[in-house]
Amino acid sequence: MNAHYDVVIVGGAVIGSAVAYYLTANPDFTGSVLVVERDPTYARASTALSSSSIRTQFSNPINVKISQYGSEVIRAFAEMMEVDGDKPDLNFHPGGYLFLARTEDQVQILKDNHAAQTACGADVVLWDRDALADAFPHLRVDDIRLASYGRSGEGWFNNTGLMYGFRNKARAQGATFVTDEVTAIRRDGARVNAVTLASGAVIGAGTVVNASGPRAALTARMAGLDIPVEPRKRTLFVFDCARTPEGSATVNNGRLPLMIDPTGVFCRPEGKFFLSGCPPLEDPAADWDDFEPRYEEFEEIIWPALAERSEGFEAIKVVNQWAGHYAFNTLDHNLVVGAHPEVDNFLFANGFSGHGLQQGPATGRGISELIIYGGFRTLDLTEVGFERIIAGRPFLERAVI
């Protein structure tokens, strides 16, 4: 390991690895890259504990476009990330997302979101109750007034496969990955210039990228900066059905989508099982090391909602559960990508609020462009820059699951 790197990335999960990949893949970048990851098992990384899905059904055009690019990368991933003949397969399942609305407010949100999505070219349709019942006959839809369904560009995939694909390709292209922890960041006025590692090493840095997920605020504070990102716990449950409705759809070759019930409960097929979760009734900041599942959410929130929605979900049994952390942006539930205006070589790639996996490709590309060119060259991410954080000006994303 060198004593100085042109770019030091704090955090080596999907965001940090994507930044490393896009930097080292660009012939206009001739510098050195160090990625510092505290946990090489990634056992508690948001990447590894996520529901591994991608959708274009957002309320903001920039988030739609971010996911459209993510979908392109997923489709081309095996070729893009080939190393020594190994082509990583993300096992993408194009199941789509299905949002259900039963109140006037929910209906209006779906309509507004749909306008933004289709303006970006997203393949999303709005269905009335009859069209919904025809497509997914297992659902009870008497209370549903409108549905929004993604016909393509949405689904789920191998979460760690995406991360390791970026990581392995970045290493093959010259990036250095080290198992260590950044414990201090040295700042001289308007510039950061070095990081100190738990091992005692002091590494000079031309640019520092904060890609530390739910710990983003801890990393920022080392540089004397603040970002409103905190860990919020989300529990996922895998359940078995006595009579599975998978295969009963009249669209998409019988595949069921990732369904978001009006209650906020969601579920999707997961092999022969289903994966499900819900927004918690109370959502305080979690302790950094608290990964204990909220077991009661299944019996109290998820099962009642699903049993009401489908006869196929009346007799179900939990076979696994785990908790992960959202890197939750408390200002506006949206990603923060860009430099701090007062410290222009400290870059944020944080606050994804549960969407980091699908937004990793566009974020990695965008951060690399800022470092190499001093500005965005492909997708303009200025709207989700840090300036709004300082101004306290929310750029809200309404479609948060």
How is this structure best described in words?
The chain is α/β, with parallel strands linked by helices. The chain folds into 2 domains: 4-82 and 158-229 and 331-391, FAD/NAD(P)-binding domain, CATH 3.50.50; 97-152 and 231-326, D-Amino Acid Oxidase, Chain A, domain 2. The chain is built from 10 helices and 18 strands. The strands form 3 sheets. Strands 1, 2, 8, 9, 10, 11, 17 and 18 form an 8-stranded mixed sheet that branches. The chain has an 8-stranded mixed sheet with strand order 5-6-4-13-14-15-12-16, with helices on both faces. Strand 10 (191-197) and strand 11 form a beta hairpin. Helix 1 packs parallel to helix 6 and helix 3 packs across helix 9 (356-373). The longest helix is centred in the first third of the chain and has 20 residues, at 61-80. The model has no long low-confidence stretch (mean pLDDT 96).
Brief rundown of the structure:
Helix content is about 30%, strand content about 25%. It is α/β, with parallel strands linked by helices.
Q: What would the principal axes of the Cα set say about the shape?
A: globular
Instruction: Please report the first level of CATH classification, the CATH class of the largest domain.
Output: Alpha Beta
- Please give the CATH architecture of the largest domain: 3-Layer(bba) Sandwich
Q: Which superfamily, in CATH terms, is the homologous superfamily of the largest domain?
A: FAD/NAD(P)-binding domain
Instruction: Please indicate the percent range of residues in DSSP E strands (runs of 2 or more).
Output: 25-35%
According to CATH, the fold-level topology of the largest domain is: FAD/NAD(P)-binding domain
Number of domain units:
2
Q: Quaternary status of these chains?
A: single chain
Class of secondary structure makeup: alpha/beta
pLDDT averaged residue by residue: 96
Order of helices and strands: EHEHEHEHEHEEHEEEEHEEEEHEEEHH
Query: N-to-C terminal Cα separation, in Å?
Result: 41 Å
The percent range for helix content is: 25-40%
Major sheet characteristics: 8 strands, mixed
H/I helix tally: 10
Question: What's the gyration radius in Å?
Answer: 21 Å
